[in-house]
Amino acid sequence: MPACAHGQVWSQVGSACVEINSYWDDCELVASVPSTTVRSTNIRSTTTAQYTVPQTVPQTKLLATGNRITTTPSQPPPPKTTTTTEATTTSASTTEATTTPPTTMTKILTSTILTSTRNPKIPKDSPCLTQSGIIPHPKKCHLYYNCSLSSESALWAYYEMFTVECNYPQLFDSEQLRCREFLNNNCNGRFEPVDPCEYRRNQCLRSHCQPCSLRFGSCRGRPDGIYPQHEFSWTPKYFTCYYERAIAHDLCEPPIPIFSPIENQCVSYDMVPKEHGGLRPDCKIRANGHYADEMGRCNFYFQCDNAKFQGFHKCNYGFTFNPILKICQSPDQVPPPCGSGSPPSCVKRPDGFYADLAGRCSYYFECKQSVFKGFHKCSRSHAFNPYKHSCVRGIGSQIKPCGIQDNPCQNRLTGFYHYNSSSSQYYECHEGLFIHFGTCPNGQIFNLSSKQCEIAEMKDYCANKADGRYKHPRAECIAFLECKQHTTFRVAQCSDKLNGTRFNSLTRSCDQPQNICPPCGYKWFDCPSYIESTTKLS
Questions:
Q1: Cα–Cα distance, 137 to 146 (Å, whole number)
Q2: d(CA 39, CA 103)
Q3: Quick one: pLDDT at residue 459?
Q4: Domain Chitin-binding type-2: where (predicted)?
Q5: 175, burial (CB in 10 Å: exposed 0-12, middle 13-18, buried 19+)
Q6: 46/368 Cα distance (integer angstroms)
Q7: d(CA 106, CA 85)
Q8: Residue 300 to residue 313: CA distance in whole angstroms
Q9: pTM greater than 0.85 (yes/no)
Q10: Is the Cα torsion angle 13, 15, 16, 20 positive or negative in sign?
């Protein structure tokens, strides 16, 4: 018989484990009972006096009846007690007095007579109905029956009566009748759980409980090793699998506080993708090569290959990375902000703030009257946002590659573009980076050729023209005007991405360059010597 669990004691009356200090805890009562007979050990005596013969208390389960203890014999009751008076005869002289047994333990505390020691709620198929002690569970290898438990436990509302579960990942040994390590334990065809969530103690029995699948990882079908607790998630939590058991749950700690589901190890924040709260550079929008560190570390640079981040590199002591030449040089040869070389040009750039041309997220520079005014730096965890012309916090408010917001310059050539087909709004791209956004004053439009805001001289262009599209006379081959009801309805442009479309003066629509005659395309046949750009849309 195993020892009682922590917080329980053995009841002499009920022959069962009970809670300490409960109303059926009889330890103090049993301990206070005096010896029933005190006499010499070498004298045989027969003593008959006037006393009440106590009824023998059988082994039984305990039933709670208010603050009383009721016991029921497992055999027919003994004959009715009688009171007699006889003389005491002994074969030798008595040297010690004989005391009568106390009646404390046999006082009738209830008038209710029970006819069975078994709770009528015990299922008929329960092995504890006919057996006692520890019994292996017939179907599940991590469970066993402890028939000494109370049948009145509230746990049986959730679990099979009298069943006890081994601690994860232990299994019950049917030969040794104890829980032990899962290795070399033969379950003999019984269900053998491997995941923590297959053990009932890890399941939720109440509301406001985090589901087991979120608290533990699954090792079923996985080889030995370490895995992220939540698959494809970047969190500090990970667990170790051994023989398909999650034998340990751990946390990554600084300076490598995040577990990478890609690398299967703890990594620093600069190795965590931005969409998962990290600082890892995004190579999806970059060509193969080396790039300046996005966090502004002047002696660091990173490598992209096949749109994948390949890692960081560090220049030798005393050198900084030159983002133009893609090599490490002395600071006097490197352009600002990391060196004292030639600054970026502000010629034909409208007044305002511009993001760093090398993609260093916290740096931006100022142009005024086509003159470079210097670099500025955002505070920690902030990055420059060209839309707002200011520093913003959090990757959710930052533009790719510094954040996760869409980059309008992705896959675009270096230059200026109209924003959302609006002739008064514009933006500048530099090697796929979004560096500036602007809006012309009311009544002006942005001239893509001069790169300046100008008076809307084309507002009367459609006064005598039929509805349709016409090539913009000052925007080369990209832009066009659309006339509607003799007014300039809008100024728009064709797709100007890499290998994008151009305006076809014959079809009055955007088309591929190979379908357009020079100078906007390179079609060499069926081209008239001259196409009047003001011909209406056919």
A1: 10
A2: 20
A3: 63
A4: 125-189, 280-340, 343-404, 406-464
A5: exposed
A6: 124
A7: 22
A8: 6
A9: no
A10: positive
